[in-house]
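S1.2 Input.
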Amino acid sequence: MIGRKPNHLLDPDGLPLFSLKEINQLPQADKEHIYGAILPEIVFTRFGFDRRTFSAPDGRHRIRFICPPGLGLLRIEVRRDPQDRDCLFFVEVADTPYRQLELSFCLINDPDAPRFDVDVDVQGRDNAFGTMRRNLSEEIRAMEAGLSPYQVRAGLKTFKNFFHRFEGFVASLGIDIIVAEPLSYSNAVRYENYGFDYITGKQLMLWIDQEFQPGGILFQRLDGSTPFRQPEMAQSVRGRSWAIHDGILQRPWDDIRIYKTVGVHAGVNTFAHPDRTY
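S1.3 Output.
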């Protein structure tokens, strides 16, 4: 639950706002004031950004809010320096035609953690997060460092703080449903922990859990033929996710759509093992 229902979000004239598109019609300063409320606390407490101006400690580099008038789209990029390769925090959100909000993408990186170039191939070309040309040596390094597929750096363990703020923001627009599309198996399981259920893909998730059990099809494919297919990987969310990224399903990881009713935890757990690890 998100606790007490927040007051409805109003524009400067006191009129209610119901979508990103409506917010995006406001002056830039008003939009930033509204959207700044969903930034995780760590941006200010650990990295020293100013809550009022959204500038970095040196006063020069602002948090970037991309929220164009006429579109129901929001993108927030937080970098300590504009030249940083990776965002400290990145989120993209969009209106849907059905009065929902789609949490399209969210990244929270520890900028001081080692970087793993899983997002480029060995020639340095963008590889669409390993979906086009994989960088196997970097993926192995990332996996051995405890990262999940597609992670270029360790995170800051602050998604919970962000999501609590985001859910409150969604509620303040009078919207009941958040939708998303998990990038990986581990993302899907983590979203379950935050109360999401499945629009499509739940049967696949249950099948995956069943077939990673001893004797199952996926368990048998953990044959040591690649670094991502070791038998012990069946016992962890992260291990399964790397094996799936390595193609163990023998089908694409797609058509997994999830949703959350604001203020409600669905109680779904497709990896229901008391001793499970990530």
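S1.4 Remarks. The mean pLDDT is 94.
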